[in-house]
Prior knowledge:
alpha+beta; Aspartate Aminotransferase, domain 1; 4-stranded antiparallel beta sheet; 55% helix; aminotransferase; transferase
Amino acid sequence: MVFQALSSAYMPIGAVLVSPEVSDVIHSQSNKLGREKNILEQVNKIAPKFQEGLKAFSDSPIIGEVGCKISLSSKHPESTFFIRACPLAQIRGTGLILGTEFVDNKSPHDPYPPEWGVGAYFGAQCEKHGMLVRVSGDNIMMSPPFIMTLEEIDELISIYGKALQATEERVKELKSQSK
């Protein structure tokens, strides 16, 4: 499904691939949307379909499976290593969504010097072990797909832990050089 690829199934984003014939019919009727007197009329036309989509999404067994996968996976000691033992980052998340902000002493007011490229280094370490993460400065964002297996979640946790250990060593090295 295309919509799951756009947001890893975390947000109700939709996209549809259609043939030119279907696209032509949709385009020929597109001038009829937007003729309402105000935005409430537009919302009232769209809302029922949006609610149907949300209901289908919330009724999906995928949502329950993710919670089960995370609770089973969190029984492994390596899954909590990086949250408890990492002094160089604030790590937060819920379910499979995870954010990491690399800051000194876990304080948002003490960022690392930008020239150190801590986030980029972490991203490179993840890539070295076969996992891609979104890097934005010293912030890392992860939102893997809901359809991950327990083995894949364990592998994600393992790679994340290895990358954090390597990044922690790199930060120690950079701190010693800057003294």
